[in-house]
Amino acid sequence: MAMSLFCYSSKSSPELQKIIDLIENQHQETFKIKFLFSKAQDVDPIQKETVQEYGFSANSFFLIDYNDNPAIGLSPTVVDLIKKSLGADGVLVLFENEELR
């Protein structure tokens, strides 16, 4: 079963993509095998509405897909890394676009 973390950012898509690329390059053992990043994209009106329910304003988002099911235990570490890289106030992470992480 495929599972994803939806990561919403207040940054622009190009700015967010640079950070994603940096994270991916610095942590290749994690993000090339166990988790996969999608490309940064602009949020659509429905996504804007979804994140506003959490009091967040997003301009872009990306997905982190679980590529290795046993790696699900590393999910808190991955979320911490994303928050550290984007700033805790600069990102909203939702498991399956529903559950706050």
Short synopsis of the structure:
With 101 residues, the chain is of the alpha+beta class. It is built from 4 helices and 6 strands, in the order βααββαβαββ.
Which tags fit this structure?
single chain; 101 residues; alpha+beta; six-stranded antiparallel β-sheet; 4 helices; 38% helix
Describe what this molecule looks like in 3D.
By secondary structure, the chain is of the alpha+beta class. It is 38% helix and 25% strand. The protein has 4 helices and 6 strands; from the N terminus they run E-H-H-E-E-H-E-H-E-E. Strands 1, 2, 3, 4, 5 and 6 form a 6-stranded antiparallel beta sheet that branches.
Low-confidence stretches: none
Helix content: 25-40%
Main sheet specs: 6 strands, antiparallel
Helix-strand string: EHHEEHEHEE
In what range is the share of β-strand residues? Answer: 15-25%
The radius of gyration computed from the alpha-carbon positions, rounded to a whole number of angstroms, is: 13 Å
Provide a count of the helices: 4
Distance between the termini: 19 Å
Category by helix and strand content = alpha+beta
Mean pLDDT: 90
What general outline do the C-alpha atoms trace?
globular
